[in-house]
Design a protein that fits this description.
- Helix 3 packs parallel to helix 5.
- The longest helix is centred in the last third of the chain and has 26 residues.
- The protein has one domain: Four Helix Bundle (Hemerythrin (Met), subunit A) (Up-down Bundle).
- The model has no long low-confidence stretch (mean pLDDT about 95).
- Helix content is about 55%, strand content about 5%.
- The protein has a three-stranded mixed β-sheet with strand order 1-2-3.
- It is globular.
- It has about 180 residues and is mainly alpha-helical.
- InterPro entries: DinB-like, DinB/YfiT-like.
- It comes from Granulicella cerasi.
- GO terms for molecular function: transferase activity.
Length: about 180
């Protein structure tokens, strides 16, 4: 039984950026990006198709959809970061996440998305580890949320990965999987 006192939509709480962006907060966020692929693989290990097709909350995505969403979202973010490092605050567009989650490939094996997340995160971390500090003030203009620096977006996507990982681990714990 799911715990009615826990916020199942935001199990780790909403995104709150650091009070101050520092080299240390950046390193922490980058470590979360680096660690997510293995944590995601471990969180999904051994689940049956029935379990993968279980929504993490009433009205929420299935665990399979969460895995595919992370691949979609984080490859999009990686591309946005690359644009931000090579263009002057380029316009990037939002995409209909809910509709993406309903496309036919939403039923694909999770292994495909795990491999995408692993490769994307490896390149993302490599790119950012060698990015000079000043470049983290570059950014993009998001069609829905406005101007964002790479620094801010890095923390947002680190949170995003942990947010969806918690959807999986909390459901597993609640169901005794």
């Amino acid at each position: 039984m799911l715990d009615p006192t826990r916020n199942e939509r935001f199990p780790i709480g909403p995104f709150v950026p650091p009070a101050e962006y520092t080299h240390e907060t950046r390193e922490d966020a980058l470590a979360q990006i680096a660690d997510l692929p293995q944590q995601l693989r471990e969180a999904l290990r051994g689940l049956s198709d029935e379990q993968l097709n279980t929504p993490y909350r009433d009205g929420g995505w299935t665990l399979r959809q969460v895995a595919h969403h992370l691949a979609d979202s984080h490859t999009t973010a990686f591309h946005r970061f690359r644009k931000a490092l090579t263009e002057d605050f380029p316009l990037v567009t939002a995409y209909p996440e809910e509709l993406f989650a309903e496309l036919p490939d939403a039923h694909a094996p999770i292994e495909w998305s795990l491999q995408i997340v692993e490769g994307t995160h490896a390149r993302w971390v490599m790119m950012l580890q060698d990015t000079p500090d000043a470049e983290f003030q570059r950014g993009y203009t998001h069609s829905a949320s406005g101007r964002q620096t790479i620094e801010h977006a890095l923390h947002l996507y680190a949170w995003h990965g942990m947010h969806h990982l918690a959807h999986i681990t909390h459901l597993r714990s609640a169901r005794g999987w």
